[in-house]
Amino acid sequence: MQKIRLTLVLMIGFFMNSCQTAAPVTDFSKIKQILETNKWVLQDNTGNVKGLDQQDVVLNFRYEDGLTVNGFAGCNSYQGKATLNSTTIRFSEIGSTKVYCPQMNQEKAYLDMLREVNRYEINGKNLSLFKDNLVLIRFKAL
């Protein structure tokens, strides 16, 4: 009887552990490294979000005279600055090229959401950008 009970306890523990998601990364030096060494691809419920010519919508981070960002917003390239600490992030001075294409509404919404972000979490290969407790944008590292 004790063997059955022990087996059940171990099985329940194994299944509960396998269902848990990765814990958020909280080490700030590791966060900076993860952000900078990955290409972040915008995600929706079906996978990668595509822009013009089926290119991924991406966000890149670089430390050059502070934290800078750049990427592809669906039609145009963009760049800007960001300030970051262990739990908060703010994007500023975001500018983009000015090519017109059918995805302009999607691109405008994406860039507007970046400007609203004030918090982030990294879980495994996933980067979530929030406004307070509301997830605005999700990325996956490539």
Automatic annotation (TrEMBL):
Q: Which Gene3D superfamilies match?
A: 2.40.128.270
User: Which Pfam families does the record associate with it?
Assistant: META
Q: What residues does the DUF306 domain cover?
A: 35-139
Q: Where is the signal peptide?
A: 1-22
In terms of InterPro entries, this protein maps to: DUF306_Meta_HslJ, HslJ-like_sf, Hsp_HslJ-like
Keyword annotations from UniProtKB, A to Z: Signal
Which protein, by its recorded name, is this?
Answer: DUF306 domain-containing protein
